[in-house]
Fold these 2 entries.
Entry 1:
Amino acid sequence: MWKDKLLVEYTCNLCGIVRAKVALPYRDEKEPITDWMEIHVMTAVARDHDIRSPNCPAKKISELWIPTVGVQWIGGPPIE
Ligand SMILES: [Zn+2]
């Protein structure tokens, strides 16, 4: 189901979400990681958090996990 997607997980201590999974497109190797983090990861996580906890006042999530084991670059696809 998530074949072509990267799954990141986040935790929000304020509303009690623990390691919710968010699927993202893989980062292009040429895309700067700071851009990718801000534009794709943080936007997707914030949107997911809003949907799950529309009344949570948290402006930032508490913890974020990005899988790096078995991937070619951070945010990239797994090595076959
Ligand atoms: Zn929250």
Entry 2:
Amino acid sequence: MIDNHTHLDLINDSIDNIINRAKDKGVTEFIVPGITGFPQKLEELQKHKEIKICWGIYPKYAVLDNIFEKEFDNLKNSSIKIAAIGECGLDKRFSNLIKQIELFKKQINISIDYNLPLIIHLVGHWQKAYQILKDSKPLPSFILHSWNGSVEMAKEFVKIGGTISLSASALKNPNKLSELLKSIPQDKIIFETDSPDQKPDFIKGLENEPANLPLIIDKIKSYI
Ligand SMILES: [Zn+2]
């Protein structure tokens, strides 16, 4: 089982402990996105071949001057093999949409140049993001992480090649989840914890972690 989106570097425990607990539950692969370029705890992450490291800049940081140039230099000068570009995208909670769009487009271009999938974070601005992706040629393969948009919009993204990744946040709206699961082909739906965020109520502990993935998937699938 793959946890398609986990910030292992932001969970309050050692990487070894976190992935050992996950493996006990059958979670064997971990996609770790970056939010300010590479993830933190890089050395620890690199020790495990089950951990796939990504590079990306989260929309919140679009306001920081030169963050893209600085972090892209780091990427170019690094020998670390990355699995995807992200997480990047648009988020209505943060200001300066123009800068967010600029940053998003730059990362789409890297994913095309490096021939790597794109991990997209969207809160609002779904139509805008859809248009940007549709206009990019060629269109990279992309994952919409922790999807919280409409069923209609999800269908549109899937039509142009997107994959929908569901976390426990999808459980907040059971009717929509059920409709989504009926409308999207099964091979276009994947799962993630988005840990340490998105801890579902039915799980104990302070933080979410990859070991919770099987329970989250079971709960989501109960709405099929
Ligand atoms: Zn994330």
